[in-house]
Amino acid sequence: MTGNDADRSAGLWLLSFSATTGAVLCGRVGWLPALLGGGLAALAYRFRLGRGRAPAAIRVVQTLWLAVPLRVAANGAAALFPAGGQSLYVPAVVLGLGWLLCRHARGGVLACCAVAGFFVLGALGAVSLCAIPDLRLRWLYPAFSWGEVLIALAAGSGGMLLAEAIPAIRPGPGWRWAAALAPAAISALAVGCLSRPLAARQASAFYTLSRAVSLFGVAERFEALIAACLTLGICSACALLLRAACGGKTVRALLAAGALVLTRLPVPEVAAAAGTVFFWGVLPGIFAAKHEKPHSEKKSKKDEKSS
Known about the structure:
The chain contains 14 helices and 2 strands; from the N terminus they run αααααααααααββααα. By secondary structure, it is mostly helical. The chain has a two-stranded antiparallel ribbon. β1 (214-215) and β2 (218-219) form a beta hairpin. α3 (56-65) packs antiparallel against α14. The N and C termini lie far apart (44 Å).
């Protein structure tokens, strides 16, 4: 895989991650917090690029915390199959597939997740286009909550995860900003078609939206397609989360197993988002700033010698 192909594949992986998390969380996060959180996450990723990693002890803590967002992803997949009830079957399959994707080499996992991104983005785009005629602008009143901004920031952590998973490959700015705007666009579509109170009551608002989509005035059964494609996107997101962990396949298998156990435990959504923002947003930014400082001092000394 050449450099440009790898960058495009990483961009598709990042955009698929953001679109999938946006579709899973769109009922619980308004479009304004999603827009603000996505923009801040994109700026943090831009600042993070090309800078050093955190120390080994911090990396271990970051890896352990990844079980919490993995739990959120697994529960999001289970919500797409309400007939399954409280079964662990869907979360176990999603986490297992994400782990299997991580067993590939760097080029293999990039290619697999890029292909998955094509299907995910194509399906989400088709349903979104069909749902636009049902959009009600009066329902898109701006609602703001700092808890929702935290959730949006956590959902936009794909860039930081990608910087840890594959540090040598960087998506272009177009991919990064598309990934920042995708959750806000999906949230606006879900709220504008369902209304904010109805969307907030749904386990998966975008899945509920897909059940009401009609094409040429005829109701189409899109929900099976959306469930399959979102499940594929969640598997790709789990692969990114597991790939960002330090350690080999055994550590990643234990991490997936821990996330499966956590699916049975109540974890407050805002607390989970705050922890993800701290461990995968604030801490990498602190160590990136520390890594940048010696370089700037060395550069200034070199300029003084040359003058």
